[in-house]
Amino acid sequence: MTHVEEDEKEEVAESSEEDHSSDESESDEGEKEYRAELEEGDSEDDELASLMGGGGGGWQLASRAATLPKREVKVWNVGTVGQRKKNAIPPKPEGATRFVCISDTHNRHRMLELPAGDVLLHSGDFSLSCKEKELVDFTEWLHEQPYTHKVIVAGNHDVLLHSEFYERHHWRYHTEKIERHLELKQRLRSVCTYLEDELCEINGIKIWGSPWVPYYHDWAFMPPDDAGLKAAWAKVPAGVDVLITHGPPHKVRDKTYQGANAGCPLLADAVFKRIKPAVHCFGHIHTGYGVVKQRDSTFINAAIVNSVYKVANNAVVFDIK
Q: What are the residue boundaries of the Calcineurin-like phosphoesterase domain, all occurrences included (predicted)?
C-alpha cells in the first residue's frame, strides 16, 4: 500500500450483494470511459461482472469460465476469511495450472492458511518497511511453502529490494543502514522467481512482473514522473498470459475508503489498449480486494490485510489453461 500506517485508513472489501452491485457500476463507469478513449465504435457491450464471492458458508465460486483468445480462466475463493472452507474449491481441471494469488501480507504471512496449487503469486508489500528481520523471515517462509513455483514482485514497502532507492533513502526507514541488502535480495531470489520488469514462463504460461506504482510520499518503486511509469509499462510484452504488478490500473478495483480511484492511468492505458493479459494480479489498495472481469481480462486485487493490517481476505485461486 502507498500509505504509511497512519495514512492508511482503508476498509476491507465486503462480499455482500450490495457491494457486488456497486462494484459493477463503478467498474462499468471506468470501462465506458476507456471505451470512449479508444474510439472503437463497437456498439456491443463488453462483458463486465464483479466476481466477489457471495455470503454464506464456504469459499465461493467467484467467476464463471471466461474463454479468452488464448487461455481459459476460472477464478475461485474470493471472500473474507470468515467464508473459508477449503473443500469448497473443486479439483483442478485436467491440463490446467492452479495459481494461488496473494498480496499486501505486511508481515502477516505466517498467519495465512493457503490452499493447494501449482504456483504461488505474491504481488508485493510482504513487509512494513523491509527491515532485515522482515525480509529474512519472509524468505524463510516462502522457502517452506509447498508450491512447485513461487513468483513475486516487490511493493513500495519492500524498500530493501529497490537497491538504488535504498542507497539514497535508507535513513528514512532504518536506524542503521543494512549493508548487505544486495545479498539479502539474492537470497530471496534463490527461493522464488523474483520479477522486476522481467518475464518467466511456467507450463507454457507467460508471466510478467513489475513493482512500479505512481508517486506518493516517495516510497520505493515510485518513479518521480510519468516518464518512468510509461517506460515500465512499455516493457511489458503484448499478450502475456498473467501480468503481476503491485498496483492496480486506474478504475479497476482501486477505490480507497475516501472514494478516490488510486490506480495508475498509464497502466490502465497499456493494459486495455495493448497488453490485454488473460489475468492481471495486483494489490496495493487494500479496499480494492476482489475480482472483476473487463473485456478479455480478469483482474484480481489480492490484498490480504485490511486498513489496520489484520488478515481479512482469502487468497484468490485461479486455474488457467
A: 98-287
Phi-psi domain of 292 (left: phi exceeds 0; alpha: psi -120 through 50; beta: other): beta
- Is the model more confident about 283 or about 258? 283
Supply the CATH classification number for the domain 73-320.
Answer: 3.60.21.10
Whole-number Å distance between alpha carbons of 319 and 75:
6
> Strand 290-294 to strand 48-50: parallel, antiparallel, or no bridges (unpaired)?
antiparallel
The strand order across the sheet containing 297-301 reads 48-50, 290-294, 297-301, 279-282, 242-245, 205-210, 198-202
- pTM of this structure: 0.79
Distance CA 79, CA 314 (A): 6
Domain spans of the chain, in order of start = 73-320
Specify whether the CB–CB gap between 79 and 59 falls below 8 A.
yes
The burial of 72, by beta-carbon neighbours within 10 Å (0-12 exposed, 13-18 middle, 19 or more buried), is given as middle
Let me know: does 289 contact 316? Beta carbons within 8 Å. no
Instruction: Please report the pLDDT score of residue 307 as a whole number.
Output: 85
What pLDDT is recorded for position 250? 97
Q: Does the pLDDT value for residue 160 go beyond 60? A: yes
Average pLDDT over residues 76-87: 73
DSSP conformation class of 97: E
Residue among 65, 53, 68 nearest 13 (CA): 53
> Residue 198's closest CA among 152, 138, 150?
152
Buried b (16+ CB within 10 A) or exposed e, 10-31: bebbbbeeeebeebeebbbebb
Would you say 118 and 98 are in contact if contact means Cβ atoms under 8 Å apart? Answer: yes
Around Cβ 228, how many Cβ atoms within 10 Å?
16
| Residue 201 pLDDT > 50 | yes
